[in-house]
């Protein structure tokens, strides 16, 4: 991936990140181009879906047929023009390397957009159906339409997930990419973005980045809502906002 390729994309930030052991990493945060959606799908299917709590508790990552089915669904989601995809790539000798090492995706929601609370029809695997049910029931604890009405918003950036490659943990990449959401919102005229914190790491990263908690549920109560046991995660799950 050459500098000519980078010139065709919006670069939001360049910086050098350091781990606690002193090792340094030069990175670049880029608005991912629409014609490279397949690479983003590959990254999320290998680095985000197998590690994110909502997928794990559905059993989706542990079933090959479910992963195949969800891959098609994810490609459709990431091809939507309402999404904003940002990625982090390593940079060496002024060249942006081709591999994605982190991704962060938001979707622009407008007041009055149609909303479906049902599970999509014609799903083939029970794990994908279960994932959709979990996502629906969890999100209904603090629904986006109610949030937009409460804060009198016409538009809002909803969270579609932030993931970091396992080989690049320890560089605080999540903190930087979640901080950049404010810059994206300002540039796009969107007053607010929000997300559920499904891990202690994401909660800490967003707190450092200036996000604020607006809703919380205990693990025990969330387990009752979802009708299943959570094998890991924080004792309290929070929904947090980042205001411009």
Structure description:
The protein is of the alpha+beta class and 244 residues long. The protein has a single domain (3-243), classed as 3-Layer(aba) Sandwich (Aminopeptidase). It is 38% helix and 30% strand. It contains nine helices and eight strands. The protein has helices at 3-7, 37-48, 53-58, 64-78, 126-139, 144-150, 173-188, 200-208, 219-226, and strands at residues 11-18, 24-31, 83-92, 95-110, 155-164, 192-197, 212-218, 236-243. An eight-stranded mixed β-sheet has the order 1-2-3-4-5-6-8-7, sandwiched between helices. Strand 3 and strand 4 (95-110) form a beta hairpin. The protein is globular. The mean pLDDT is 93.
Concise structural overview:
By secondary structure, the protein is an alpha+beta fold.
Write the CATH fold name.
Aminopeptidase
**CATH-scheme architecture:** 3-Layer(aba) Sandwich
Strand content: 25-35%
> What portion of residues is helical?
25-40%
- Could you state the order of secondary-structure elements as H and E? HEEHHHEEHHEHEHEHE
Radius of gyration from CA coordinates:
18 Å
Identify the CATH homologous superfamily.
Gcn5-related N-acetyltransferase (GNAT)
Structural category is: alpha+beta
How many strand segments?
8
The domain tally reads 1
End-to-end CA span: 33 Å
């Amino acid at each position: 991936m050459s500098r000519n390729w980078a010139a065709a994309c919006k670069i939001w930030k360049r910086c050098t990140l350091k781990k606690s052991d002193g090792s340094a990493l030069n990175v670049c945060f880029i608005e991912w181009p629409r014609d490279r959606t397949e690479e983003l799908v590959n990254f999320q299917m290998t680095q985000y879906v197998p590690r994110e709590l909502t997928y794990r508790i559905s059993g989706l990552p542990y079933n090959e047929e479910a992963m195949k089915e969800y891959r098609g669904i994810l490609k459709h989601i990431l091809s939507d023009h309402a999404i904003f995809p940002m990625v982090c790539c390593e940079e060496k000798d002024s060249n942006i390397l081709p591999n994605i090492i982190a991704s962060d995706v938001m979707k622009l929601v407008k007041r009055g957009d149609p909303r479906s609370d049902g599970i999509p029809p014609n799903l083939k695997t029970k794990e994908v159906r279960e994932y959709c049910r979990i996502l629906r029931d969890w999100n209904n604890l603090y629904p986006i339409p109610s949030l937009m009405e409460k804060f009198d918003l016409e538009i809002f950036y909803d969270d579609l997930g932030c993931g970091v490659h396992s080989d690049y943990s320890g560089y605080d990449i999540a903190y930087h990419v979640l901080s950049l959401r404010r810059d994206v919102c300002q540039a796009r005229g969107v007053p607010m973005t929000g997300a559920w914190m499904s891990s202690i790491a994401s909660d800490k990263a967003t707190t450092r980045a200036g996000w604020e908690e607006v809703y919380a549920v205990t693990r025990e109560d969330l387990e009752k809502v979802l009708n299943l046991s959570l094998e890991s995660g924080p004792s309290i799950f929070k929904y947090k906002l980042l205001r411009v």
